[in-house]
Write a structure and sequence with these properties.
The complex is a heterodimer of chains A (about 850) and B (about 350).
Chain A (H helix, E strand, L loop, with lengths): L3 H15 L1 H40 L4 E5 L3 E2 L13 E13 L6 E7 L1 H4 L11 H8 L4 E5 H6 L7 E6 L2 E11 L12 E5 H7 L5 E2 L1 E6 L5 H11 L4 E4 L3 H42 L1 H9 L4 H46 L11 H27 L3 H4 L4 H28 L9 H37 L1 H12 L1 H39 L4 E4 L15 H8 L3 E13 L5 E7 L1 H7 L10 H11 L2 E4 H7 L6 E6 L2 E11 L8 E5 H8 L6 E6 L5 H12 L6 E4 H15 L1 H28 L1 H9 L4 H43 L9 H18 L1 H8 L3 H6 L2
Parallel strand pairs in A: 4-8, 5-7, 14-18, 15-17
Antiparallel strand pairs in A: 1-10, 1-11, 2-9, 3-4, 3-6, 3-10, 5-8, 6-7, 12-19, 12-20, 13-14, 13-19, 15-18, 16-17
Chain B lengths: L1 H12 L27 E11 L5 E11 L2 E10 L4 E10 L5 E3 L5 E4 L2 E6 L2 E8 L2 E9 L4 E2 L5 E3 L7 E18 L2 E16 L9 E9 L4 E8 L10 E5 L6 E3 L4 E5 L2 E3 L6 E3 L2 E5 L4 E7 L5 E3 L7 E13 L2 E12 L25
The chains are: A alpha+beta (about 850), B mainly beta (about 350).
């Protein structure tokens, strides 16, 4: 009896050595999948790790952090004085500024009570501490991490210009910090100042952003926490120091989740390729399997041999994929951090995390996927009966019988998918939505042999009529290799289906956003604090900017907007916003989900003291128009009626919008985030901006965008967000096309004898090449036919289930026909091109040699 | 029974409570014990000699500084028998619940250290490595304002002055507690409060300050502002407070000050005087002052950045020919080389520079 290694050598290694291409393609398939998963894994891990690092460097040794819905009023600190007997506390002002040296870089400003802050945060001075001490007391002192200072050419004593809170501030570099402790926050882009200096910078006297509490060793943590909670005035909350990281993570998790799903798609397509390869192996070795079985080789050993083949392909692919992933991960990280900063957190600094973890994980997933993919054909191999297998065509008989069972299973999978699509999200994750996608994939895989056969039957007549003998041959080849073609077709149908579905989804969202932007962005200019290189809003503006703008000639109306990021008691982020509802009542611009008149809704909300909530907020928090919201304010909890739900695609956290008058009355926060300016009729927006900027010079530092610029920017950010998506789709399609090539190469090798015979009886090399190309075309056509309903199902699930559950947005479907046709045509062309090499292989068969092989 | 008798005797023998309003021109108490926002620099300084019921002697210093909106505090504890000197320091911005000094009354806090005054009774709280100190101080004498018109000139410049008020004798009682162990304490304390623009004349290398309480009920405050060569500047001065009656200014030309010993710090290598002979012939006062412990040096890296010596001393001598004994606190600055205290590098903005210790 032969041992495992002997059998493996006979069934797997031997053929692989003779026809390396047959091994190379599935290895490449796994490699690309593993590379994509590893790269995305690293990008995602980098995001999470960066958030954690950022939060940890600012939180230091903090045990609790006190925050406030409108900051923490300094007066409230009096209530914490009991803490000195059990530990320490330290208030801090945090915010972002743009470095005013033309670099456009952002810097996190941290204003602390330097003498007391050592209890919470570590700072290591690298410059002369004595000189630093004297400068520290001067009130405009700033300490900078050494690398940051070096990059900006700043030495102790130099002047640092910061644009913050709508103004330019000049600070004096008092000392340099080692890149440790709090200086590591934001990747070392930190400016450490006196607390009062930071308050002045951000225009919020009497308010701090956080108070860190550190307990002495031996202090009763729970007792202190209880006492702290009892001491907190309304509007203040106590949170763990990791909350900031968790919140940031939560903001981007829908995005990351979807990215992971797409990454898995590439691996899934890779799996089909492995299954395909092993399946070809099984079919090709049928006589050898039968012989081995008849001389007593056990089923377990045969199963093991083919699993081992999958493992070998998986291992080679994984190794290659990990290497490729290391390269790919840079691009992935760049793309992901562009989205995170462009869409979610403009101030986030994403540094690359270690690659080893994600690479190992992707490798393990790749190996498992390869072995799992090999299991099905391996199971088929051990069903080979020694006697029957020696007769040709018997396996196809087995396959035909199982078609009915497969069809029934596919129908069941589709029914289950339909049921799953109706299920609600699990902890804000569209788990069932993705399950439905997986079920559609399964149904597709189950149905594909039937599809291939049906396609073959339908095509035989037209092919023969159109292409003559090569057409007839192609059809016979295609239908004759049911198993491997079915798998290859499934892989391509899956990749193409997903691609088409994503094209529909992205186009739908884009169109929805475009329409929304047109209907909401009605003002002529948007004024905000300079954001440097960042997209989005950095910091805020003093209230007097509003009056300044209102007084400018050519300005018809101004609408001050305020937005503050909040976190609810369960750690869910949301946004508290306010605008002038009088302006809203005049110009509309807040389309309501129920189609009601936004002007009237704004007027009503203003007069009745109601709030408006954004659609993502309504969905996420289960709020409907007419409900009553409980809002924690510095004046205690207020119950406010929801006057309406408006569409908002700018923020998937969800926004509660108040009229500015009500906001001011409740939150004592007079600063504004941005100001929308309506120009007088006939005034030119660009000209108005020029005049405003000239007038503001020396007084305010402002950044002003025109309506056109803002719209363009929204769509630019949108497109950048989906760049990763498109890249992943392209990868999946590439793998699938490799699959087609692989199946055809296998056919060419397997049918050497048939080709030899055909050539012997007079078929030309050209005819055979054409036959193989036609087979490729037929496979691609079949896949496209299967992909269309699959794409419809995927798109439906993405638009109606996954997207609303992840982001809370309602999206109107749009079908970009030209782009869909182009994508399908491209895939078709690529598949036919994939038939070129196997065609050449088949046509190059030497008739005499092929026949002599027997 | 004995305790009650002792307490009664103490009540009967105690001098009448000081008048709430002191005869100081322009100053009113308790208002002027409080913080003066218009003064760039201000400090409240408590020192004292204490003993536990077994007679074991201790010295303490508790100081609250304010420099603009920056609040600093030092707490030092001398255990004479154990020959230990320990101190703790704090620095904070002026923030509620963290560090503050009220206007209009004496209420200064830095974390959970505090000094408060009501009706001539001061309450001090502080803690350090030796434990948590809780003292009640009863003023035995009325506040004294040093210098003509309550202005203590430090130099010729317009901003080279301070308002300087002392309560030269307070009865102290209280306890220090550490890890569940509580030691009762009683003794005598001294309170200084000084505020002003904070400018120290250039060319002053440091100073030697003496606060002496004598057994006959009199006190002497004396300071020498030193030039770099060690000579006293023309603005060195003092005040003598007799057992009863009005305090008298001390003119420096009647003072003979002689250093009898030196002590070199093993930490900073600074060589401090460690014994003095002082003669004030107009007052017929001759004193010998010696530290209870040589090492009472503070290196305050975490707060003022100033290295100075401030310690409990014993006093012997004669006044008017009669022998007297007593206790003193002595402060020595400017001996640790580069650590010249004061405002030698005045910053450019409105906030004041590093505060001095005195």
């Amino acid at each position: 009896m032969a041992g495992l290694s002997t059998v493996f050598r006979a069934l797997v290694l031997g053929p692989a050595r003779r026809h390396p291409l047959r091994v190379v393609l599935p290895v490449l398939g796994v490699a690309v999948g593993v590379a994509a998963v590893a790269a995305i894994g690293r990008a995602n891990a980098s995001v999470t790790e960066s958030f954690r690092d950022a939060a940890a460097s600012v939180a230091g040794r903090s045990d609790f952090v006190v925050r406030g819905i409108a900051g923490v009023p300094v007066a409230a600190l009096e209530r914490f004085s009991f803490l000195w007997d059990v530990g320490a506390f330290s208030p801090a002002v945090t915010g972002w500024a743009v470095v005013g040296d033309g670099s456009g870089e952002l810097v996190e400003v941290l204003g602390v009570d330097a003498g007391g802050d050592a209890a919470v945060r570590d700072v290591a001075l690298v410059s002369d501490p004595r000189a630093s001490r004297a400068r520290l007391l001067s009130g405009d002192a700033v300490f900078l991490p050494e690398p940051f200072a070096r990059r900006h050419g700043l030495a102790p004593g130099a002047e640092l210009s910061l644009l913050a809170g709508g103004r330019e501030h000049r600070l004096r570099v008092a000392g340099l910090l080692a890149l440790s402790g709090v200086a590591r926050a934001s990747g070392g882009d930190v400016a450490l100042t006196d607390l009062f200096t930071a308050q002045r910078l951000f225009g919020k006297p009497g308010v701090v952003d956080r108070v860190d509490v550190v307990l002495a060793t031996g202090a009763d943590r729970r007792a202190v926490r209880r006492r702290l909670l009892a001491a907190l005035p309304p509007g203040l909350t106590l949170e763990p120091p990791t909350r900031a990281a968790a919140t940031a993570d939560r903001m981007v998790r829908a995005f990351r989740f979807n990215l992971n799903a797409l990454g898995s798609l590439t691996l899934l397509v890779g799996m089909f390729l492995v299954a395909n390869a092993v399946s070809i192996s099984v079919l090709r070795r049928r006589p050898e399997i039968a012989t081995l079985r008849s001389i007593g080789t056990s089923r377990a050993m045969l199963f093991g041999v083919f699993l081992l083949e999958g493992l070998a392909v998986g291992a080679a692919g994984t190794a290659l994929g990990q290497a490729g992933g290391a390269l790919l991960s840079r691009a992935a990280l760049r793309a992901v951090s562009a989205t995170v900063t462009g869409v979610y957190l403009p101030t986030a600094k994403i540094g690359a995390s270690a690659f080893a973890g994600p690479a190992l994980l992707a490798g393990a997933v790749g190996l498992l996927a390869a072995v799992g993919a090999a299991a099905l054909p391996a199971a088929e191999a051990i069903r080979v009966e020694p006697a029957a297998a020696l007769r040709a065509g018997s396996i196809e008989v087995v396959r035909r019988r199982s078609l009915r069972g497969r069809t029934i299973a596919a129908v069941l999978a589709l029914a289950a998918g339909a049921a799953a699509s109706a299920a609600p999200p699990v902890r804000e994750f569209p788990v069932f939505g993705f399950a439905a996608v997986a079920l559609v994939v399964a149904a597709l895989a189950l149905l594909s042999p039937a599809l291939v056969r049906a396609a073959d039957r339908a095509a035989v007549g037209p092919l023969a009529r159109l292409f003559g003998e090569p057409g007839r041959l192609a059809s016979r080849f295609f239908g004759g290799s049911l198993a491997r073609n079915a798998i290859a077709v499934t892989a391509l149908a899956l990749a193409l289906g997903m691609t088409l579905a994503m094209i529909v989804t992205v186009a739908s969202i884009r169109e929805t956003v475009r329409v929304w932007v047109e209907s909401t962005l009605r003002s002529d200019l948007w004024v905000k604090s300079p954001a440097g290189k960042a997209t989005g809003v950095i910091g805020d503006l003093p209230e007097d900017v509003v009056d300044f703008l209102r007084r400018q000639p050519g300005v018809a109306a101004v609408d001050p907007f305020r937005a503050r990021d909040q976190v609810d008691a369960r750690g869910r982020p949301w946004t508290l916003g306010s605008g002038d509802f009088r302006v809203l009542a005049r110009i509309g611009g807040l389309p309501l989900t129920d189609g009601a008149d936004p002007r009237r809704a704004a007027e009503r909300a203003r007069s009745l003291g109601e709030v408006l909530v954004s659609e993502p907020y309504a969905r996420r928090f289960g709020i409907r128009a007419g409900d009553v919201l409980s809002l924690a304010t510095p004046r205690g909890t207020r119950r406010l009626a929801v006057g309406g739900v408006y569409r908002d695609y700018s923020n998937d956290r969800g926004t509660v919008l108040l009229d500015r008058a009500l906001y001011l009355a409740l939150f004592d926060d007079r600063r504004v985030t941005s100001v929308a300016v309506l120009a007088s009729p006939g005034a030119d927006a660009s000209e108005l901006r020029r005049r405003i900027l000239a007038k503001a010079n020396g007084r305010y530092a402002l950044s002003i965008a025109t309506n056109v610029e803002l719209r363009r920017q929204v769509l630019r950010i949108f497109d950048r967000t989906f760049a990763v998506t498109h890249a992943l789709e392209a990868i999946a399609v590439l793998i699938a096309v490799l699959g087609i090539a692989n199946a055809l190469v296998a056919s060419a090798i397997e049918r050497r004898r048939a080709f030899g015979l055909l050539r012997a009886v007079g078929a030309s090399a050209r005819q055979i090449r054409r036959a193989v190309l036609l087979e490729a075309g037929l496979a691609a056509l079949t896949a496209t036919a299967a992909a269309l309903p699959a794409a419809a199902a995927f798109a439906g699930l993405l638009l109606a289930v996954i997207n609303p559950q992840s982001f809370g947005w309602t999206v109107a479907p749009a079908i970009p026909a030209p782009r869909l046709i182009a994508a399908a045509a491209l895939v078709f062309a690529a598949s036919v091109l994939a038939g070129l090499y196997p065609g050449r292989l088949a046509a190059g068969v030497d008739p005499a040699a092929a026949l002599a092989e027997e | 029974m004995t305790a009650i008798l002792a307490a009664l005797a103490a009540l009967l023998l105690a001098p009448a409570a000081p008048a709430p309003t002191a005869p100081v021109p322009g100053l009113r108490f308790p208002r002027d014990h409080g913080s003066h926002a218009d003064a760039a620099v201000e400090w409240w300084y408590y020192t004292g000699h204490l003993a536990d019921p077994a007679g074991r002697a201790y010295g303490f210093q508790l100081t609250f500084f304010r420099a603009g909106t920056l609040h600093l505090a030092h707490f030092a504890w001398t255990d004479v028998a154990a020959k230990t000197f320990r101190y703790e320091e704090k620095t904070h911005l002026e923030l509620p619940g963290i560090a503050s000094a009220d206007a209009g009354r004496l209420r200064v806090r830095n974390e959970n250290w505090s000094a408060e005054e009501a009706d001539g009774v001061h309450r001090l709280r502080a803690n350090g490595p030796e434990g948590a100190l809780d003292l009640t101080l009863r003023a035995v004498k009325a506040p004294v304002a040093h210098g003509p018109g309550g202005v203590s000139k430090k130099g010729a410049g317009a901003a080279e002055y301070s308002h300087y008020v002392s309560i030269t004798r307070l009865d102290a009682s209280g306890a220090i507690a550490r890890g569940g162990k509580r030691v009762s304490l009683a003794g005598s304390a001294w309170f200084d409060h000084e505020w002003g623009p904070g400018a120290l004349p250039s060319g002053v290398a440091g100073w030697d300050w003496f606060g002496v309480q004598l057994s006959d009920g009199s006190e002497l405050m004396l300071y020498r502002l030193r030039e770099p060569d060690g000579r006293a500047t023309a603005f060195s001065s003092g005040t003598f407070v007799p057992p009863s009656g009005p305090p008298a200014p001390v003119a420096w030309n009647g003072v003979e000050l002689e250093e009898t010993k030196r002590w070199t710090s093993p930490r900073t290598q600074a060589a401090y005087p460690a014994g003095w002979r002082i003669a004030l012939s107009p007052l017929r006062l001759a004193l010998e002052i010696n530290p209870l412990l040589p090492d009472q040096e503070l290196v305050t890296e975490k707060s003022t950045g100033v290295t100075y010596w401030e310690g409990a001393c014993r006093v012997t001598g004669t006044r008017g020919g009669k022998p007297v004994t007593g206790g003193a606190y002595v402060e020595l600055t400017g001996y640790a080389g580069r650590d010249v205290p004061g405002f030698t590098a005045p910053p450019t903005s409105s906030s004041p520079g590093a505060p001095s210790s005195r």
